[in-house]
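Operator note (shift B, R.M.): manual run for 3-oxoacyl-[acyl-carrier protein] reductase requested after the automated queue skipped it. Running by hand, logging everything below so the morning shift can see what happened. Input copied straight from the record, untouched. If output looks odd, do not overwrite the archive copy; leave it for review.
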Amino acid sequence: MKLRNRVILITGGSRGLGKSMALGCAAEGGEVIITGRSSVQPEWVYQYEQVSYYQQDVGCLESTKKVLERVFNQYAQIDVLVNNAGINRDHLFKDMSLDDWNEVINTNLTGPFICSKAVLPYFIDQGYGKIINISSAAATRVNIGQANYCTAKAGVEMLTKVLAIELPRIGNITVNCIQPGVFEEGMGEELMSREKVWDKYKPRFASGRPGYGNELASSLVFLASDESNYINGHVLEVNGGLMWV
Ligand SMILES: NC(=O)c1ccc[n+]([C@@H]2O[C@H](COP(=O)([O-])OP(=O)(O)OC[C@H]3O[C@@H](n4cnc5c(N)ncnc54)[C@H](O)[C@@H]3O)[C@@H](O)[C@H]2O)c1
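Run finished. Output pasted below as returned.
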């Protein structure tokens, strides 16, 4: 029970990898709050006493502040923020609209900025907190058709490193990042459903297979637990061995 008495907020956890990480944290005794844009709680949440769902748009500071107030009122603490919410709007650059660009940057990069900023006063008051950002292999590898997504994810990794140096000066706060490869859940599922695309990707994987959500969740549990207290500013690649190109 590595996360007993820990309160973990996972943005965008209604499905996909966020759901896998929520279940992983709950299995280790954590109290988990997941968020999403919909006003309707996902059906699966009703089955887990330790998981709650709140509505949030990570691109909106007001919406995020309200979520954090609610979390604090309910649990009187917030220990871990997981910046997981993400979208893609893939197009070749010549066809990418300003809206495609702005939506992805707003959710995937400004979202982690907003959520980290909003949680900081709570972390400072507590004298403790962990931020864990979810980037992507696309942060350090070129994907044609993902100028917006690759740029946002590269930004998330740099945000991780800057905050990891700044925030420990004002509290016992660490900031780390998990860089997933391709997973069976969420966006990865969509990628693999396009057979031709997956055939092209597959040889890049030493493991020869995508990851499973629980294999990402175990890394998150480690970074969210006290076992990782001396790890800060790290980007943990979880991809089964992924070639560069
Ligand atoms: N699945 C993969 O193979 C893979 C690989 C690399 C990185 N990632 C990253 O993992 C994270 C989770 O992705 P996923 O694959 O589970 O995708 P997904 O589409 O299944 O889940 C994304 C979640 O984010 C939520 N969301 C989207 N915009 C939001 C907003 N503005 N405010 C609040 N919530 C919002 C959605 O409701 C959903 O719950 C993303 O950051 C993604 O970039 C996924």
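Quick read of the result: The pocket of nicotinamide-adenine-dinucleotide is lined by residues 11-12, 14-18, 35-37, 56-59, 84-87, 107, 134, 136, 180, 182-183, 185-188 (CB under 6 Å). Residues 129 and 201 are 37 Å apart (CA to CA).
Leaving this for review. - R.M.
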